[in-house]
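Structure first, sequence second, as always.
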């Protein structure tokens, strides 16, 4: 499953949002990846997420594959769309 979302928080995906994203993605059995400008990283890796350098207004794609892929894609996208509570 793929879901496109736009980064809404002012500082983009810095350390705190990256940690929240990894925590949320790790709740699921499915493989969760983030694609940004053709670079695909494991969403369960904080170093992978940080390496994207996604800033406010960036459109990223959440890609999930596995038994709970629908729920994983929806919840990870919801977290990103919420602006990580910032």
């Amino acid at each position: 499953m793929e879901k496109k979302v736009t980064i809404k928080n002012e500082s983009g995906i810095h350390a705190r949002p990256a940690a929240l994203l990894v925590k949320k993605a790790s709740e699921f059995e499915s493989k969760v990846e983030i694609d940004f400008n053709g670079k695909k990283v494991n969403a369960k890796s904080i170093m992978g997420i940080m390496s994207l350098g996604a800033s406010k207004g960036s459109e990223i794609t959440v890609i999930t594959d596995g038994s709970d892929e629908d729920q994983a894609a929806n919840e990870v996208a919801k977290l990103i769309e919420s602006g990580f509570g910032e």
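Margin note: The longest strand covers residues 59-65.
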